[in-house]
Amino acid sequence: MASTVSYIEIGAGDAAPVGAFFAELFGWSFHPMGTDGGGWFQAGSIKAGLHGGDAAPRIDLFFQVPDLAAAVERVRALGGQIDGGIAEEPGFGKFAQCHAPGGLSFGLHQPEST
């Protein structure tokens, strides 16, 4: 299965200072959402989401796939795990948070059809 990175998710304990840091460091434009300091950046050709409330800060890469359900089954067949299941967000598409054997976190993303 071929893929490209389609989305980056940044999880922080406190989103506001992390958002200000990346906006200043990379010159990314920030688009706030909600009231917790989270939102998203336009990071070159892809978006980078930011949320707070993570006990262990992290950055996850989301890989674009044409068929998320099939990709999730392939992760499981190869010994990986899926957190929860497939989620969907209007304007973004479907996604699943995954773990490779050994616990490495990554995501799969199927954009909305255009």
UniProtKB/TrEMBL annotation:
Residues 4-111 form the VOC domain. InterPro entries: Anthracycline_SecMetBiosynth, Glyas_Bleomycin-R_OHBP_Dase, Glyoxalase_6, VOC_core. This is VOC family protein. PROSITE patterns: VOC. SUPFAM superfamilies: Glyoxalase/Bleomycin resistance protein/Dihydroxybiphenyl dioxygenase. It comes from the Bacteria. Gene3D superfamilies: 2,3-Dihydroxybiphenyl 1,2-Dioxygenase, domain 1 (3.10.180.10). Pfam families: Glyoxalase_6.
